[in-house]
UniProtKB/TrEMBL annotation:
SUPFAM superfamilies for this protein: Actin-like ATPase domain (SSF53067)
Organism: Prevotella micans F0438
ATP-binding in keyword set: yes
Protein name from the UniProt record: Pantothenate kinase
GO BP: any one term: coenzyme A biosynthetic process
GO cellular component terms listed in the entry, alphabetical order: cytosol
Amino acid sequence: MKIAIGIDVGISTTKIVGICDGKVVKPLRIKATDPITSLYGAFGKYLYDNRIELVDVKKVMLTGVGAAYVDKPVYGLPTKKAEEFLADGLGARFESKLQKMIVVSMGTGTSLVQCDDNNIRHIGGIGIGGGTLNGLSRLLLKTDNINEIAELAKKGDVSKINLLIGDISQHPLPGLPKSATASLFANAQGNASREDIALGLICMVLQSIGSATILSSLNSGIRDFVLIGNLTLLPQCEYIFPMMEKLYDVRFIIPKHSEFCTAIGAALQAEKK
């Protein structure tokens, strides 16, 4: 039985999935010191773990910034380059089962891809994402370990970092409850705890991404936003985005294989080609 392989090659992390008979086959992520090591390690382990022979691989599609480093066959199999923004759209559409949406790819930065049936196009993005969180955490928390940052944030109080509407007004403003953010980090003090800072940083990144996404949808009629990428694994997504949903009457969706959607979309391009 033939399988199409999609590989999202990052600088230090590679994600790989297979698509067989219209189903995703056991996604895998591998970290390494460079993209080539990461790619070969991920591909070899994926084939071994799933008992896939090389002759069973129909096509190998590469995407991601690290794909540019690969210009020859991998394990003797020819590879093709998949268009990354198209992969974002195809993967998110496959996972969410939606036809009309904006795909929010939360990586080092954030890219926005609009999908309207088969019309999939990149509409912009912002330079805020996981890279922002890592860099500011190195400066303020002396760590860029994302798991440590998320654990610290669980014990934080964001009201000690952000200025809320309730801090500047005795009554809710039109369309804005007193718990809404008036200004990110405007309430931070020099003696703020690491836990409060960690939560403030995560809220700043996720709220900025959410606000940019909502603004990008104006006049499009789109109210569904599908979140993909590594930042979707942050536990704080579970309450930050629902708050924005309630405030703006939109819907943020994190699909099952959210961190692998780009690799899924790459594999789907193999089917199309």
